[in-house]
């Protein structure tokens, strides 16, 4: 499984920089943690909260999950980031 996080918008330009994690490069513990986080984030992706119009300089986060020939794309914007999405996003930033 390959999972990437792309951040756009906000006050600081990110220039399309992405955090990419390939499960083949992880320890067994981290592989299981990544799978757990992906499962939780995709389970809650069907109904993300509405974006707050009060946040003008919000960052948008895109998580792409490539697994067994299929790709799943999750999106969230500051002010409407589900807890499970945030957990996966934060984990990807540190790995």
Core attributes:
single chain; 95 residues; alpha+beta; 4-stranded antiparallel sheet; 32% strand; globular
Q: What topology emerges from the helices and strands here?
A:
Layout: E1 2-9, E2 18-22, H1 28-43, E3 59-67, E4 70-77, H2 83-94
Helix pairs in contact: 1-2
**What structural class results from the helix and strand content?**
alpha+beta
Strand content: 25-35%
Count of all domains: 1
- Order of strands across the biggest sheet? 2-1-3-4
| Share of helical residues | 25-40%
Taken in chain order, the helices and strands follow as: EEHEEH
- Count the DSSP helices: 2
Question: Per the principal axes of the C-alpha atoms, what is the gross shape?
Answer: globular
Rg, Cα atoms, Å: 13 Å
Oligomer: single chain
Mean pLDDT figure:
85
Which spans of ≥5 residues are poorly predicted at pLDDT below 50?
none
Q: Alpha-carbon distance between the termini?
A: 14 Å
> Main beta sheet: strand number and arrangement?
4 strands, antiparallel
Tell how many strands the DSSP assignment holds.
4
């Amino acid at each position: 499984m390959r999972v990437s996080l792309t951040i756009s918008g906000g006050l600081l330009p990110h220039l399309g920089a992405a955090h990419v994690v390939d499960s083949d490069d992880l320890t067994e513990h981290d592989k299981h943690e990544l799978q757990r986080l992906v499962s939780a984030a995709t389970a809650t992706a069907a109904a993300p909260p509405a974006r707050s119009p009060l946040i003008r300089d919000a960052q948008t986060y895109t998580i792409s999950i490539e697994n067994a020939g299929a790709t799943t794309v999750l999106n969230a914007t500051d002010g409407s980031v589900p807890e499970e999405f945030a957990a996966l996003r934060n984990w990807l930033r540190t790995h």
